[in-house]
TrEMBL record:
The lineage of its organism: Bacteria, Pseudomonadati, Pseudomonadota, Betaproteobacteria, Burkholderiales. Keywords: Heme, Iron, Membrane, Metal-binding, Transmembrane, Transmembrane helix. It comes from the Bacteria. It comes from Massilia agilis. Part of an enzyme complex containing four subunits: a flavoprotein, an iron-sulfur protein, plus two membrane-anchoring proteins, SdhC and SdhD. The complex can form homotrimers. This is Succinate dehydrogenase cytochrome b556 subunit. The chain crosses the membrane at residues 20-45, 66-87, 107-125. CDD domains: SQR_TypeC_SdhC. InterPro entries: SQR/QFR_C/D, Succ_DH_cytb556, SuccDH_FuR_B_TM-su. Membrane-anchoring subunit of succinate dehydrogenase (SDH). Pfam families: Sdh_cyt.
Length: 126
């Protein structure tokens, strides 16, 4: 009976404080999904741009729209984060950066570098 009284009554995801490595791992998965979902669009735009001069102009017009520019910036972040987190993971597989302080530092580096690359891309695109 005493055990039942100490159990939480709700599970608030906003109160959970995840370690930086967990956030990097989640970002790695999200970035992979974004990349996979964007591939058909990019293949379509590439195919369109290679069809003819008119197709190229149409593709340039599509890529010039603000929502598409935002998608491209998100894709650039996804690619940067996915590659950096993947390299971090591969290095940890061979015991480089595996101790906790080094793992935290590399996770922060991946997250910050991804944000810097996103800001540079957004500045160049928008």
């Amino acid at each position: 009976m005493e055990h039942e009284q100490r159990r939480p009554r709700f599970f608030n995801l906003m109160q959970i404080q995840m370690p930086v490595g967990a956030l990097t791992s989640i970002g790695h998965r999200v970035s992979g999904i974004i990349l996979a979902l964007c591939v058909p669009f990019y293949i379509y735009v590439l195919q369109l741009s290679l069809q003819s001069p008119r197709g190229y102009a149409l593709a340039a017009g599509i890529l010039g729209r603000l929502p598409v520019k935002a998608l491209v910036a998100a894709s650039i972040w996804a690619l940067a984060h996915h590659v950096l987190a993947g390299i971090r993971h591969l290095l940890s597989d061979v015991d480089i950066g595996s101790p906790l302080p080094a793992a935290r530092t590399s996770a922060w580096a991946v997250n910050c570098a991804g944000l810097v690359i996103l800001l540079l891309a957004a500045g160049a695109l928008l």
